Amino acid sequence: MAKRLRWADLPGSLIESITARTGPIISGHAVTDGKNSPLAAALETRDGRLFVKGLPSDHRMVITQAREAAAAPLVKGISPALLWQFDEGGWNVLGFEHIDGRSAHYGPGSPDIDLVVELMHALSDIEIPAGPGPWKPIETRLRTYVDDPADALIFAGQSLTHTDWMPDNVLISHGQAWLIDWAWATPAQSWTDPAFWLLRLIAHGHTITQAETIAARLPAYAAADPEHVAVFARVNRGMWNEIERDHPIPWAQTMAATARAWAEHHRA
Question: Distance (Å, rounded) from C-alpha 66 to C-alpha 38?
Fold first, then answer.
């Protein structure tokens, strides 16, 4: 996880590069949600607000910036628009439309659940164009968590999936759910995104049955082969056990316990 830089601590050359795209900056403040980008700030300019995020150009995770830029033209209307990008002065930076919203609530009875289902319906129709790109296919991402790497091929597809459905990545604004942070955008079967999401629903108080019923409102998940879903549950158990081992902090422990319970549910 990257240390978040305060706006006042950014190099002057970096602020100059940003200002060249935005015009004079009236104010800027670091955004506290999220941990993966050293630069994440909301800016107030003469022409309105925007959000910038960035990494040093030589950072090992700079590929995530390329994924976000590649996803941007595909997700118009469900994600903030990408306004500009640059890689200069040792920094790779993206400038986005600012959405004034709050993080989604995933608890039982939350009205946000319906909004996220609508968002997922829209997302399920989007495919990644053929050809090279900055993507890491899901079968590559998850192959270390299956008994036979070939088993991961059951998740393979060309649907654009987000894969990281933590509540901070879904903004609720004026009756719409907006999806942000495409760092882990992945070509996959479209049912895998509802499956990633239902783990979050369980972690926020839904029973497994309730969460799976909500996920089944998405046709792709409802039609998924139950055996494939069971394999996916075991994959998530292995992945979250690893995350918990490497980062034994409360949210990781909660997600690991949730993934274990879901995998046991499918084993039974």
Answer: 16
CATH label, 102-267, candidates 3.40.1170.60, 3.90.1200.10, 3.30.210.10, 3.90.1150.10: 3.90.1200.10
Provide the pLDDT for residue 135.
96
Taking the C-alpha atoms of residue 58 and residue 160, their distance in angstroms, rounded to an integer, is 27
Opening angle at CA 252, ends 258 and 103, nearest 5 = 90
The first and second tokens of residue 164, run together, are: 């990281």
Q: Which helix (H) or strand (E) holds 242?
A: helix 226-246
Nearest to 87 by CA among 32, 148, 39, 137: 39
Percent of the chain with pLDDT over 90: 84
Q: Are 90 and 57 in contact (CB under 8 A)?
A: yes
pLDDT at residue 244 greater than cutoff 70: yes
